[in-house]
Amino acid sequence: MNRRESLRSLSLAAVSASFPVLAASQGRSFRVGLTPVMLADQFGFLTRWGQYLSERTNLQVEFVARETYQGILDLLFSQQVHAAWICGYPYIRFEAELELLAVPLYQGKPTYQSYLIRSPTNSPTINGWQDLRGQVLAYSDPLSNSGWLVAQVQLAKAGIQAQHLKKAFFTHGHRNVAEAVAVGLAQAGTIDGYVWETMRLQKMSSAMKTEVIWKSEFFGFPPLVIRRGQGDERTAKLGHALNEMANDSAGKEFLAALNLTGFIKGQPELYDSIRKEAQQVPGSGVAP
Asked: Is residue 29 part of a domain?
């Protein structure tokens, strides 16, 4: 079994383990959907974090994993999960139907960047967006800000249209972008900077074999959201528990594992820069 198959198996295990238990206790059950924005998505970690949050909310917090943003949004909109950790782009795109529950803090701030990466061994001549003509580019997800939307704006600025690329493909996961670039499946990839930096901290081989050649402006960090108008005592409890994680030793351990420093409530204005980018991209679903 290769790395990608292993990650998929872990995600599906988290899903299958969640649903039978949830049906038995709907009153206290609180389902949180996770998308590829999550780096530490191992089943054991999710189980321990769910137990930690359950103890602090008097709820039965369960995590449900899906490989794509669309998959987890489908669960949220069909009321199969109560909250979801998604990307800023789908939050902006479906803002009329969503509201913020919590925003992570990365290095003390609720922001992150998109990176363009290359392999110094396989793609030494790629130094920026202008060098991607005739090359293969790896994206993360069609609903990813850092893994797709940002790239559309930058490619347009460089005068490169889709047909000018040799190929572009979605890996459905930021880690998979790094892996595709590291092994030469793509000459460059657009990736969540927080994910890449965390992979480097963990000495993951695909991150160690790639390097950053461009960084974006700062954007609002991928948020946890709920459906608009669905806030209640349970969502308030979970939001409070997330915000308090930085104030106790166990919470700090979970945050450290995620390479985060805390959570805050957050404001919609954090995502104005993503909205402005989306308004420049035809077909983004965000009106000018």
From this structure: yes
3-state secondary structure the chain: CCHHHHHHHHHHHHHHHHHHHHCCCCCCEEEEEECCCCCCCCHHHHHHHHHHHHHHHCCEEEEEECCCHHHHHHHHHCCCCCEEECCHHHHHHCHHHEEEEEEEEECCECEECEEEEECCCCCCCCCCHHHCCCCEEEECCCCCHHHHHHHHHHHHHCCCCHHHCCEEEECCCHHHHHHHHHCCCCCEEEEEHHHHHHHHHCCCHHHHCCEEEEECCCEECCCEEEECCCCCHHHHHHHHHHHCHHHCHHHHHHHHHHCCCEEECCCHHHHHHHHHHHCCCCCCCCCC
Residues 18 and 154 in one domain: no
Q: Is residue 283 part of a domain?
A: no
Range of the domain at 137: 114-217
Looking at residue 44, its pLDDT comes to 85
The reported pLDDT for the residue numbered 157 is: 97
Number of structural domains in the chain:
2
Q: Give per-residue pLDDT as tens, 94-144.
A: 999 999 999 999 999 999 999 999 999 999 999 999 999 999 999 999 999
pLDDT confidence of 36, banded at 50, 70, 90? low
In this structure, the answer to whether residues 37 and 51 fall within a common structural domain is yes
